[in-house]
Amino acid sequence: MSTPLYEQVSVGDDLPAIAKPPLTRATLALFAGASADHNPVHIDIDAARDAGLPDVIGHGMLTMAYVAQVLTGWVPPSAIRSYSVRFVAPTRIGNALTCTGAVVAKDLGPDGAVRIALQAVDQFGDVKVRGEAEVLLARRDTI
User: Fold this and answer.
1) Domains of the chain with CATH codes
2) What angle do CA 65, 81, 70 make, to 5 degrees?
3) What is the pLDDT of residues 60-83, one digit of tens each?
């Protein structure tokens, strides 16, 4: 990974997109075990239906982690100053997400910060997560 310099990025630049395979029950079971998030709506179809859902839904934190990979594929984790998301719609079994990011602001101060808009959409174009991050990029005159 070659981290861009502050001077090399412009507002409107897209970060490399991340495409994820369709969400499966196995992925949810593995994530539940790894995260210790065993909320039944993510792994038990009967509990999901009792909650008014047609089937289990993906963990919000799993989708958030997928979106974060857009950032960590562009800059090292140490360059991420802040990261937040808003969950827009549940991710369902079979949804294949594409996670994207774009530079939306520069000149956030003398330290080389840029603001990134992020999102995850499924194969139908439905937005599942929207987010933003602030990352620090080295300036040419400081390296």
Assistant:
1) 6-23+59-142 (3.10.129.10)
2) 35
3) 999 999 999 999 999 999 999 999
